[in-house]
Amino acid sequence: MADLEFRSDNCGRAAPELIQALVSANEGSVLGYGGDALTKQLQTRFSQLFEHPVQVFPIPTGTGANALALAAVGSPFGAVYCSPEAHINTSECNATSFFGSGLKVTPVHGVDGKVDPLALDAAVSNAGKGQAHKNQPEAINLVQATDMGAVYSVSEVAAIGQIARAHGLTVHMDGARFANAVATLGCTPAELTWKAGVDILSFGVTKNGGLLTDAIVVFNPEVAKKMGFHLRRAGMIWSKMRFASAQVMAYVQDDLWLRLARQSNAAALTVAQGIAHLQGVKLIAPVQANELFVEMNPKAVDYLIAQGVLFYRRAPNMFRLVCRWDTTTEETTRLIALIEQSPRG
């Protein structure tokens, strides 16, 4: 029997609609580097989607989106605050500091991968603002959904945004799973971003049915002025931009992005409900998007591996499961059955 794929939503197929969009865009010749009609349409479409004038920059990778968004709002002697589990802190090989010419990633306390507002306020208040021998607070990074599978509510984002404004900081949202968060909350993209104080968003596409692109969405026009220079300097501007823009346009067409996210969220919730009651099984973070973090007896984890379940093990007794937009009912049923059969005593 085939292995069960729960390693990452990066392992899933591309949505057929996005592949068709590439085919449709592959006609004739157009100006490169964003001078094409599709890229111009993208600006209008996203301004409608977010109910606010925005500038959209398709970009090859999520790491690039995070690092260059923060580079555009930070300085070589600045600090960006984030949760300890944030992707910029744990998984991006110091890209934020590299592209930010020294911008320092500074973790602050929180639970479930979130930034705690009180801890953030205390950290910034005690950072030594104005002192030449201290990194200067400049930005806040929020991961939505978090790297523990939880989702910031609109009010939680707004609370962070209020602290940011009080201290003169910029708010960046790492939205690699932004679609999953919006699908969970049932709010509008505007309510979860600029209306709550977010200045710049890394808009995830790849993890939710995309092929080869994510995007940076800028709500603050002053930040947008710098963005193109950072992208060019980093070598992350598409020459044949129309193909990247075609993917992003198709992704949000007729709410495809939310339908795909609801599918992966539903699969994760099915697994969570199927295993939460089992003895010896503990979900260590809320399952609010498409990720589950599970603690079990190490022998039970070994058993799942031996049975062909693919996932990332974080410790002998803890692992992560990620559902994709194309995770099937058969896959979730088999996974639940194998966890039920595992030696948990």
Keywords:
345 residues, alpha/beta, Aspartate Aminotransferase, domain 1, Aspartate Aminotransferase, domain 2, 2 domains, 7-stranded mixed sheet, 4-stranded antiparallel sheet, 14 helices, 13 strands
Summarize the topology:
Layout: E1 4-5, H1 16-25, H2 37-49, E2 55-59, H3 62-73, E3 78-82, H4 87-90, H5 95-99, E4 104-107, H6 117-125, E5 136-143, H7 154-167, E6 170-175, H8 178-185, H9 189-192, E7 200-203, E8 214-218, H10 221-233, H11 241-252, H12 256-275, E9 282-283, E10 291-295, H13 298-306, E11 309-310, E12 312-315, E13 318-322, H14 329-341
Parallel strand pairs: 1-11, 3-4, 3-5, 5-6, 6-7
Antiparallel strand pairs: 2-8, 7-8, 9-10, 10-13, 12-13
Helix pairs in contact: 1-11, 2-11, 3-10, 6-7, 8-12, 12-14
Characterise this structure.
By secondary structure, this protein is an alpha/beta fold. It folds into 2 domains: 4-11 and 257-341, Alpha-Beta Complex (Aspartate Aminotransferase, domain 1), CATH 3.90.1150; 16-256, Aspartate Aminotransferase, domain 2, CATH 3.40.640. It has 14 helices and 13 strands. It has helices at residues 16-25, 37-49, 62-73, 87-90, 95-99, 117-125, 154-167, 178-185, 189-192, 221-233, 241-252, 256-275, 298-306, 329-341; strands at 4-5, 55-59, 78-82, 104-107, 136-143, 170-175, 200-203, 214-218, 282-283, 291-295, 309-310, 312-315, 318-322. The strands form 3 sheets. It has a 7-stranded mixed beta sheet, with helices on both faces. A hairpin with a 2-residue loop joins strand 12 (312-315) and strand 13. The protein is globular. The model has no long low-confidence stretch (mean pLDDT 96).
